[in-house]
Amino acid sequence: MNLNAYPPTVRELIQRLARLPGLGEKSATRIAMHLLQSPREDVFALAHAIRGMRGRIQTCSRCFHFTDQDLCSFCADPARNTGVLCVVESTADLMAIEQSGAFRGRYHVLQGVLAPLDAIGPEDIRIKELLKRLKEEEIQEVILATNPSSEGEATAHYLHRLLRDRGVKVSRIAYGIPMGGDLKYIDRVTVERALKGRMDF
Ligand SMILES: [Zn+2]
After folding, report:
1. Distance of CA 173 from the midpoint of ligand 1 (Å)
2. Cα–ligand 1 centroid distance for 74 (angstroms)
3. Fewest 10 Å CB contacts: which of 105, 148, 151, 189?
4. Mean pLDDT calculated for residue range 26-30
5. pTM of this prediction?
6. What is the Å distance from ligand 1's center to 139 Cα?
7. Which domain holds residue 169?
8. Across the chain, what does the average pLDDT equal?
9. How far apart are the CA of 141 and the centre of ligand 1, in A?
10. pLDDT of 6-25, one tens digit each?
11. How many domains does the chain have?
12. How far is the CA of 146 from the centre of ligand 1 (A)?
């Protein structure tokens, strides 16, 4: 697509939008055209929201989830179970668990996983901070909810070795057959995990 036909300011917007996940030049152009035709105050409100979000958002000083306060809403919520800690790779994973409504404890966001090939070691993710929390808070159980990728598994194993002698129960979330799934179409590793993670009926 030849963007030179657009005025430079519009061209810049299209190029910046096109770098966002899931957008290419075509959809970026469509959004830019939509914004050009929208009421000024709507477009300014959008720009203001983006600027405000980036300016005020920081990570929670305890769990490393995003927040605009010192503590995030989960750490600050007295109704949440303080004895159970769910360890996740990222805020996106935290949100997925939260939206399930199945967990009412607190979180710890590692902000990554161990990836030796990319030279990401234990000191590059929030493991030190996790150990500090185990000393300072009354945590009885740590649920390792890293993803079932090779890095996620390696991170869970590493944390299990690190935590098992510290007087807390360490558990790993079960992965298995998705609801509505069909065994014959599911990969071998997933079936194996589902069998290993089986529970009493
Ligand atoms: Zn927090």
Report:
1. 21
2. 6
3. 189
4. 96
5. 0.79
6. 15
7. 78-196
8. 92
9. 17
10. 999 999 999 999 999 999 99
11. 2
12. 17
